Amino acid sequence: MAEAADFQGTSPSPARRLLRRAGTLLAGAPLLAGLLQLPAASSAQAVGQDAVRTASGSGTVAVALDSLTPGAPSDGDTVTVAGTVTNNGKQAVTDAHVGLRVGPELNTRSDIDAVARRTGFEPGADGDEVGGKYVQKFASLGPGAAQHFSISVPVDKLNLGGNGVYEFSVSLSGRTTAQPWEQVLGIQHTFLPWQSSDADTKTKTTFLWPLISSVHMTAETGPGEQQTPVFLNDDLAKEISPGGRLQQMLSLGKDLDVTWVIDPDLLASVDAMTRNYRVRNPKGGNPLPGTHQAVAKQWLAELQQAVTGKEVVALPFADPDLASLAHNGTSVTGSLSQLRDATDVAASTVETVLHVKPDTDFSWPVDGAVDPSIVKVATSAGADKVIARSDSLEETGGLTYTPSAARPIGGGTTAVVADERLSTAFEDDMTGAGTTTLAVQRFLAQSLELDGQTSKQRSIVVAPQRMPTASQAQAMAQALTALQQSTWSQPQDLAAAAKAKPDPGATTRLPSTADYPSSLRKRELDRSAFAAIARTQDKVDNFKVVLTDESRVVTPFGRAMNREMSVSWRGRDGEAESFRDGVEAYLDDLSQQVKLIDKSETKLSGRSATIPVTVQNNLVQGVDHLVLRLTSTNPTRLKIGGKAYSEQPVTVSGGHSQSVKFTTSANANGRVTVVAQLYTQDGQEYGDPVSFDVKVTEITATVMLVIGGGVLLLVLAGFRMYTQRKRAAAREETEAAQDGRDGDEGRDAQDPDGEQDPDGEQDAGSGQNPEGPADRLEKKESDTRPREGDPEQASDPTPDTAAENADPSGTGEKVDR
């Protein structure tokens, strides 16, 4: 069966075309004979058909098809159809019944699309009722009333022809007061794939089963050695809990033949939840303790078991948005390095958590939309296979069938082109049973129609939406279970599909960048997002060089920057910006834990002094490879270490402070501003500078001269006083000796009556000079002479000079002149 609507100029395969034409001729022969006998139909019949057609278009009754089992029947099966009919009109429906209709076989995949779009009843196209006992009757269906129905019919009663896809409809017929004749008042179209036995050639089908989530972990960690992670919220716990989206994906996927496509960030996040973790407090304040360790452990244990022996494809860490990077990020330095880093860490993360070796050779742009720039970026980190989709890499070669997925697109790169119809079959809301049943039947119909296009065996890939809801996952599993039980398909790994021999006529030409869908482009991360990531990376590089254990910073912030590029931010610009700002702010806060302590004004009194500057480290780990520079803004007045600035290496243990001392020399009085700044060893500034004033009160040479002169004068005055006293003492001794000699002479000159010699009086008188130093000394000594009534002191000597004693001199006393 060909895809005539998909590829212009195509037609069904020759063998099937001949069979169908023969069947049409045989079926039309009796009709042709009748037409020859009855040239025209009666006018009454024509009026009746018009009335039925008009009534059916009103959609008075809604028909919901809740289940159809089996979805792909084979010989001997009984088809059971169940659902609900609801009267949406204002009149009661009487003589109502639900019936089954089998339409003609559909020849192309486009025919299936056309039937799926039809909502009304078309008498010729929708076939006749199976009738008989295979109906369910209702006496009346009032306005707004709903009735459940269930009809079972053996497949051999459906009068199916050869293998293929048939239109299959469920209709409600009845009468109304306004139109009191039997008519179809509601109908629901679906499909019945019919393959009575194993197909001669089975299609190899690869179904990707994605385990991908949005970003949940922040860059923040708790204080202490353990680095307790902090989550944005507790949504991941909901997803992996029973009934949650990821729990459903795991529970359903473990029983299917699928290729697991996993984001390593999801594994890292759930693994972090198995230990102590914290969740941001929505009311603000400190993060709250996480409480879902048991759920996380259970989910990981089940996943480890599910992937054992299965193919696992690891996407780059956090599932980076390749199209956004290609269109907006490559002009920002370092963006491609982020992708390489995310790719490098992917394998180790999966191996550590799941204990399986993943395939990292595949990249997966959003919705499989590709252009040359996306492919270039996707393969820049080492992947050589790009998962594309057929609505992006469209066929232009005139093939009459859907080619195999693998396409060589140059440069050693293979595009693995997923089938667009099969891949998008479950993107609608699947919460209702009716929409799920229709999606499953359409998926099976497209798969069988594809298989019947040619006798060549092909490899087909199904790449569904990245993050299916729980109901979408259930619909996917239902369809895949039926497909794997079918007679026309067999499962295949993605790696095998990529290695399959390409169809020579399949297109390998990539669409231009201008052809990238605008609906996808306007949801991309813009250039400012990548500029913010680059700015954060620069800060990490500047911070890590001073750390003794850089992994405590490089690893969490490296993963956080990977998360900033995630596909999950598409359409969430505000949340994405908030996440990026949070990462950068937290990094700034950490780096500021190593800082200079502010200083107040410092006073220097002297030509040289020491200035201490303190570096504080509030981190858990030590810091090293830092240089502290102290700079004088006026080196003419104040020099640091003999020049304008001085530097010293700094090492500070975690949780400690370190004072660094700088010697200074002053040349003049006044105030000088000094700037302290930390640098990394490669000369990059680290942290904010600290400025403070140094007030110099220097002692100049003139002042020193004055002070020196004063000291000299004091010394000279003391020396003079000392010499004066020494001379006075010597004079006193000389005078005392002279007085002794004069006394002796005086006694010799006295007459017997005791009268003094005139010369003696003159000599004695001449010894009393009021201006001489001896007189000053005698006056001082006389002041200390005991007074009448004072007690006698043994230490006081008896005066022995005429000047001190008025009594007559003793015999032999002399007074020298």
Automatic annotation (TrEMBL):
Residues 493-519, 730-817 are annotated as: Disordered. This is DUF6049 family protein. It comes from the Bacteria. The chain crosses the membrane at residues 699-719. InterPro entries: DUF6049, Ig-like_fold. Keywords: Membrane, Transmembrane, Transmembrane helix. The keyword Nucleus does not apply.
